[in-house]
Amino acid sequence: MPPKPDFLADLRCHIGEHTQQVQSLFLELDDEQLAQQPAPGEWTILQCFDHLNLTHDYYAPKIAGGIAQQRQANTVASPSADSYAPSFWGRIYMYFSLNPKYSFPTAPEITPAASQLDRDVLHTYLAKQETLLQTLSAVETLDLRRTTIPIEKFVRFNLGDCLKVVVYHDGLHVRQAERVLRNVSG
């Protein structure tokens, strides 16, 4: 179990890397490069980031609700408040979803648009990274293990799971966008 400050520092580090990669690799590209499909059925760079924006839109209200509920409950912090450990469902989900050797169909609510995307997708992504950094600051006083977030009908993650899933999932698709860039730049 990593101490909470170390866990949050790790997430901040990843967010910083993702932000830097977008700024240094993708913002300078022309519209054609951003929208070029590397192969039939594969996502463009813009679609990778549209998917991430949609994923943030899916998780952000759930995370905000969990934070609000925890603050309203005003519970006394337990010893676990200073560490993070994945929940049962979080551990299973992260094992499969954050492992590049497994591939799953994208849920409709987070499937990127097939067209009509422009470079604003990248700016939206960068804004969402800034919001995520603010969220990390807001959770510093909360128990990441006891704050539960309903994800699906019978699935609950803890707050730490949600934060890790969002940040590490971003990494998967930033790397995917880098591969697309290599393929279209050739």
Count of separate DSSP helical elements: 6
Q: At CATH's second level, what is the architecture?
A: Up-down Bundle
Helical proportion, percent range: 55-70%
Structural domain count: 1
Question: In what range is the share of β-strand residues?
Answer: under 5%
CATH top level assignment: Mainly Alpha
What value does the Rg take, in angstroms? 17 Å
Shape: elongated
Mean pLDDT across all residues, rounded? 91
Superfamily at the CATH H level? dinb family like domain
Strands in their spatial order, largest beta sheet: 1-2
How far is it from the N-terminal to the C-terminal residue, by CA?
43 Å
Structural class label: mainly alpha
Question: CATH topology, what is it called?
Answer: Four Helix Bundle (Hemerythrin (Met), subunit A)
Tally of strands: 2
Segments where pLDDT lies below 50 for 5+ residues?
none
Reading the helices and strands in chain order gives HHHHHEEH
Largest sheet: 2 strands, antiparallel
